[in-house]
Amino acid sequence: MAVCSAVSASTEGMALKELQHASGTVFCDGAIRGSAVHVSHLSPEHSIIATAAHVLVHAQTRQPFKSCFYRPANARFSSVGFAQISTQATGMTLKDSLRNSELDWAFVALKRKLAIPALRLSLRGGPAHEPSRIQALTLVRYQGDHEAMRIDDNCAEVHSEYLENTKLLLHNCAAGPGVSGAPLIDPVTHGLVGIHGGTLSLTTQVTDKPSQFQHTKILQARAIDQELIDALARFSRSLP
Protein backbone atom coordinates (compact mmCIF):
# COMPACT_ATOMS: atom_id res chain seq x y z
CA MET A 1 0.00 0.00 0.00
CA ALA A 2 1.37 3.42 -0.92
CA VAL A 3 1.53 6.00 1.83
CA CYS A 4 1.06 9.63 0.90
CA SER A 5 3.37 12.04 2.72
CA ALA A 6 0.91 14.91 2.50
CA VAL A 7 -1.62 15.27 5.29
CA SER A 8 -4.63 17.49 5.72
CA ALA A 9 -4.44 20.46 8.07
CA SER A 10 -6.91 18.84 10.46
CA THR A 11 -4.99 15.54 10.51
CA GLU A 12 -1.67 17.32 11.00
CA GLY A 13 -3.14 19.44 13.79
CA MET A 14 -4.47 16.35 15.52
CA ALA A 15 -1.09 14.63 15.24
CA LEU A 16 0.74 17.64 16.70
CA LYS A 17 -1.77 17.79 19.55
CA GLU A 18 -1.05 14.14 20.36
CA LEU A 19 2.69 14.86 20.42
CA GLN A 20 2.04 17.71 22.83
CA HIS A 21 -0.09 15.49 25.08
CA ALA A 22 2.61 12.79 25.08
CA SER A 23 5.19 15.29 26.36
CA GLY A 24 5.49 17.03 29.70
CA THR A 25 7.81 18.38 32.37
CA VAL A 26 9.94 16.95 35.17
CA PHE A 27 9.23 18.68 38.49
CA CYS A 28 11.77 17.97 41.25
CA ASP A 29 12.24 19.50 44.70
CA GLY A 30 9.95 22.45 44.03
CA ALA A 31 10.95 23.46 40.49
CA ILE A 32 10.65 22.40 36.86
CA ARG A 33 13.96 20.80 35.90
CA GLY A 34 13.35 19.88 32.27
CA SER A 35 11.13 18.14 29.75
CA ALA A 36 10.27 14.48 29.15
CA VAL A 37 8.08 12.25 26.99
CA HIS A 38 5.81 9.25 27.60
CA VAL A 39 7.18 6.24 25.68
CA SER A 40 5.66 2.94 24.61
CA HIS A 41 7.22 -0.29 25.88
CA LEU A 42 6.54 -3.97 26.58
CA SER A 43 4.66 -3.86 29.88
CA PRO A 44 1.02 -2.67 29.73
CA GLU A 45 0.85 -2.18 33.51
CA HIS A 46 3.35 0.68 33.76
CA SER A 47 3.96 4.09 32.26
CA ILE A 48 7.56 5.05 31.44
CA ILE A 49 8.96 8.44 30.46
CA ALA A 50 12.27 9.26 28.77
CA THR A 51 14.33 12.31 29.71
CA ALA A 52 17.92 13.50 30.04
CA ALA A 53 19.76 11.99 33.02
CA HIS A 54 21.20 15.33 34.15
CA VAL A 55 17.65 16.65 34.65
CA LEU A 56 17.33 14.32 37.65
CA VAL A 57 20.40 15.54 39.56
CA HIS A 58 21.48 18.85 41.10
CA ALA A 59 23.80 20.71 38.73
CA GLN A 60 26.32 21.63 41.44
CA THR A 61 26.27 18.72 43.89
CA ARG A 62 25.54 15.99 41.28
CA GLN A 63 23.23 14.45 43.87
CA PRO A 64 19.79 13.15 42.81
CA PHE A 65 16.77 15.24 43.69
CA LYS A 66 14.75 13.90 46.59
CA SER A 67 11.22 14.20 45.20
CA CYS A 68 10.33 14.13 41.49
CA PHE A 69 7.09 14.12 39.52
CA TYR A 70 6.11 13.99 35.86
CA ARG A 71 3.58 16.58 34.71
CA PRO A 72 1.85 15.47 31.48
CA ALA A 73 1.56 18.53 29.21
CA ASN A 74 2.87 20.45 32.27
CA ALA A 75 -0.53 20.04 33.98
CA ARG A 76 0.37 20.44 37.65
CA PHE A 77 -2.82 18.78 38.89
CA SER A 78 -2.00 15.65 36.87
CA SER A 79 1.44 15.17 38.44
CA VAL A 80 2.57 11.56 38.86
CA GLY A 81 5.39 10.52 41.18
CA PHE A 82 8.47 8.56 40.13
CA ALA A 83 8.48 4.87 41.08
CA GLN A 84 11.79 3.65 39.61
CA ILE A 85 14.64 5.18 37.60
CA SER A 86 16.80 3.29 35.11
CA THR A 87 19.88 5.41 35.74
CA GLN A 88 20.72 8.30 38.02
CA ALA A 89 23.42 9.83 35.81
CA THR A 90 25.94 7.34 37.16
CA GLY A 91 29.16 7.41 35.20
CA MET A 92 28.71 11.03 34.13
CA THR A 93 31.66 13.28 34.96
CA LEU A 94 32.24 17.00 34.72
CA LYS A 95 35.49 16.65 32.73
CA ASP A 96 34.44 14.73 29.63
CA SER A 97 31.51 16.61 28.10
CA LEU A 98 31.33 14.33 25.06
CA ARG A 99 31.07 11.19 27.19
CA ASN A 100 28.53 12.96 29.40
CA SER A 101 26.38 13.59 26.33
CA GLU A 102 26.47 9.91 25.37
CA LEU A 103 25.31 8.93 28.88
CA ASP A 104 22.71 11.67 29.22
CA TRP A 105 19.52 9.63 29.11
CA ALA A 106 17.19 8.01 31.62
CA PHE A 107 13.95 6.04 31.70
CA VAL A 108 11.57 6.55 34.61
CA ALA A 109 8.68 4.30 35.63
CA LEU A 110 5.77 6.23 37.12
CA LYS A 111 3.60 5.33 40.09
CA ARG A 112 0.45 5.03 38.01
CA LYS A 113 -0.55 4.33 34.43
CA LEU A 114 -1.15 7.35 32.20
CA ALA A 115 -4.04 7.57 29.75
CA ILE A 116 -2.11 9.67 27.23
CA PRO A 117 -0.33 8.98 23.92
CA ALA A 118 3.08 7.28 24.03
CA LEU A 119 5.87 7.54 21.47
CA ARG A 120 7.83 4.61 20.10
CA LEU A 121 11.62 4.69 20.21
CA SER A 122 12.85 4.81 16.60
CA LEU A 123 16.15 4.83 14.77
CA ARG A 124 16.51 8.16 13.01
CA GLY A 125 15.76 7.98 9.32
CA GLY A 126 14.95 4.28 9.67
CA PRO A 127 17.39 1.36 10.00
CA ALA A 128 19.29 2.37 6.85
CA HIS A 129 19.88 6.00 7.84
CA GLU A 130 22.64 7.57 5.76
CA PRO A 131 24.99 9.96 7.61
CA SER A 132 24.68 12.50 4.78
CA ARG A 133 20.88 12.53 4.93
CA ILE A 134 19.28 15.45 6.76
CA GLN A 135 16.61 14.33 9.22
CA ALA A 136 13.68 16.72 9.61
CA LEU A 137 12.73 17.06 13.28
CA THR A 138 9.96 18.16 15.62
CA LEU A 139 10.84 19.24 19.16
CA VAL A 140 8.32 19.40 22.01
CA ARG A 141 9.66 21.44 24.91
CA TYR A 142 8.68 23.39 27.98
CA GLN A 143 8.43 27.14 27.40
CA GLY A 144 8.88 28.94 30.69
CA ASP A 145 7.40 32.32 29.77
CA HIS A 146 4.10 30.63 28.86
CA GLU A 147 4.38 27.78 31.39
CA ALA A 148 3.28 25.38 28.67
CA MET A 149 4.61 22.82 26.23
CA ARG A 150 5.57 24.22 22.85
CA ILE A 151 6.02 22.44 19.53
CA ASP A 152 8.89 23.50 17.27
CA ASP A 153 8.32 21.77 13.94
CA ASN A 154 10.65 23.76 11.72
CA CYS A 155 14.04 22.32 12.59
CA ALA A 156 16.34 19.54 11.48
CA GLU A 157 19.42 17.48 12.11
CA VAL A 158 22.70 19.23 11.31
CA HIS A 159 26.15 17.89 10.49
CA SER A 160 29.49 19.18 11.74
CA GLU A 161 32.86 18.57 10.15
CA TYR A 162 34.36 18.75 13.64
CA LEU A 163 32.17 16.18 15.36
CA GLU A 164 31.01 12.78 14.16
CA ASN A 165 29.43 10.62 16.84
CA THR A 166 26.73 8.07 16.06
CA LYS A 167 25.38 8.30 19.62
CA LEU A 168 24.61 12.00 19.25
CA LEU A 169 22.01 13.80 17.16
CA LEU A 170 23.11 17.36 16.35
CA HIS A 171 20.27 19.74 15.56
CA ASN A 172 19.14 23.36 15.17
CA CYS A 173 15.89 23.21 17.14
CA ALA A 174 15.02 25.85 19.74
CA ALA A 175 16.90 25.89 23.04
CA GLY A 176 16.34 27.56 26.38
CA PRO A 177 15.41 26.90 30.01
CA GLY A 178 13.43 23.69 30.44
CA VAL A 179 14.40 22.15 27.09
CA SER A 180 16.75 19.52 28.59
CA GLY A 181 15.20 16.09 28.16
CA ALA A 182 12.82 17.27 25.44
CA PRO A 183 11.88 14.73 22.76
CA LEU A 184 13.15 15.06 19.19
CA ILE A 185 10.58 13.43 16.94
CA ASP A 186 10.48 12.25 13.34
CA PRO A 187 7.65 14.37 11.87
CA VAL A 188 6.62 11.61 9.46
CA THR A 189 6.57 8.52 11.68
CA HIS A 190 6.15 10.37 15.02
CA GLY A 191 8.84 8.11 16.43
CA LEU A 192 11.17 9.35 19.17
CA VAL A 193 14.62 9.72 17.57
CA GLY A 194 16.48 11.76 20.19
CA ILE A 195 16.49 13.15 23.74
CA HIS A 196 17.81 16.71 23.93
CA GLY A 197 20.78 17.06 26.25
CA GLY A 198 22.28 20.51 25.87
CA THR A 199 24.97 22.47 24.07
CA LEU A 200 28.44 21.24 23.17
CA SER A 201 31.27 23.77 22.90
CA LEU A 202 33.82 22.84 20.24
CA THR A 203 37.26 24.45 19.97
CA THR A 204 39.07 23.98 16.67
CA GLN A 205 42.09 25.45 14.93
CA VAL A 206 41.47 28.02 12.22
CA THR A 207 42.47 26.70 8.80
CA ASP A 208 45.94 27.92 7.76
CA LYS A 209 46.28 29.72 11.12
CA PRO A 210 47.45 27.09 13.62
CA SER A 211 47.94 29.68 16.36
CA GLN A 212 44.30 30.79 16.21
CA PHE A 213 41.25 28.92 17.44
CA GLN A 214 37.55 29.25 16.83
CA HIS A 215 34.80 28.33 19.27
CA THR A 216 31.57 26.78 18.06
CA LYS A 217 28.47 25.87 20.03
CA ILE A 218 26.16 23.18 18.76
CA LEU A 219 22.95 21.70 20.14
CA GLN A 220 23.02 17.98 20.76
CA ALA A 221 20.67 15.19 21.74
CA ARG A 222 21.28 11.58 22.69
CA ALA A 223 20.26 9.72 19.55
CA ILE A 224 17.93 6.78 19.90
CA ASP A 225 19.93 3.73 18.86
CA GLN A 226 19.71 -0.01 19.45
CA GLU A 227 21.47 0.43 22.80
CA LEU A 228 18.65 2.61 24.14
CA ILE A 229 15.93 0.45 22.60
CA ASP A 230 17.42 -2.60 24.34
CA ALA A 231 17.85 -0.65 27.60
CA LEU A 232 14.17 0.31 27.60
CA ALA A 233 13.16 -3.31 27.02
CA ARG A 234 15.34 -4.48 29.93
CA PHE A 235 14.01 -1.74 32.20
CA SER A 236 10.42 -2.59 31.29
CA ARG A 237 10.98 -6.28 32.07
CA SER A 238 12.56 -5.41 35.43
CA LEU A 239 9.49 -3.59 36.75
CA PRO A 240 7.47 -5.42 39.42
Describe this structure in words.
The protein is mainly beta. It folds into two domains: 9-118 and 227-238, Trypsin-like serine proteases (Thrombin, subunit H); 136-223, Trypsin-like serine proteases (Thrombin, subunit H), CATH 2.40.10. The chain contains three helices and twelve strands; from the N terminus they run H-E-E-E-E-E-H-E-E-E-E-E-E-E-H. It has helices at 9-22, 97-103, 226-238; strands spanning 23-28, 31-39, 48-51, 68-72, 80-85, 106-110, 136-143, 148-156, 168-171, 183-185, 192-206, 209-223. The strands form two sheets. The chain has a six-stranded antiparallel beta barrel. A hairpin with a 7-residue loop joins strand 4 (68-72) and strand 5 (80-85). The chain is globular. The N and C termini lie far apart (40 Å).
Question: Short summary of the structure?
Answer:
By secondary structure, the protein is mainly beta.
Distance between the termini: 40 Å
Output the CATH topology of the largest domain.
Answer: Thrombin, subunit H
The rounded Rg comes to 18 Å
Tally of discrete structural domains: 2
Question: Helical proportion?
Answer: 10-25%
Distinct helical segment count: 3
CATH homologous superfamily grouping of the largest domain: Trypsin-like serine proteases
**Biggest sheet descriptor:** 6 strands, antiparallel, barrel
* Shape, principal axes of CA atoms: globular
Low-confidence region ranges: 1-11
Which strands sit side by side, in order, in the main sheet? 1-2-3-6-5-4
The CATH architecture of the largest domain: Beta Barrel
- Report the average pLDDT across residues: 85
CATH class category of the largest domain? Mainly Beta
The SSE order reads HEEEEEHEEEEEEEH
Strand content: 35-45%
The computed structural class is mainly beta
In terms of quaternary structure, the protein is: single chain
Count of β-strands:
12
